[in-house]
Amino acid sequence: MALxxxxxxxxxxxxxxxxxxxxxxxxAIFKSMDLEVMRVVLTAGRALPPHKVPGEVTIQCVEGSxxxxxxxxxxxxxxxxxxxxERNEMHGVSALTDCSALVTIAxxxxxx
Length: 112
Known about the structure:
- The chain is mainly beta.
- The chain has one domain (19-106): Sandwich (Jelly Rolls).
- Helix content is 0%, strand content 46%.
- Strand 1 (27-31) and strand 2 form a beta hairpin.
- The N and C termini lie far apart (33 Å).
- The mean pLDDT is 91.
């Protein structure tokens, strides 16, 4: 069963998960023609392998701490911090502690 996505005008709570952090899973919040937003939840020591996406990406740490591995080296994110990645920039994400982050992808449409 697909997870429901937010609709225009709907308020979505993207604050810290707190005590629920250890049991929550990553989830898509919404996807439109131009934009995708998801909450990524990782427990300490877990990682997303290096990958790239065709659009610009922001990763905003909501709680915990994580490293984003870039060609220039790792960038540590703590709550309230955000990093912008260029389109097609290879990156990986590693949880230093249990953490959640908001990931926003500007989708590249063919024909622009």
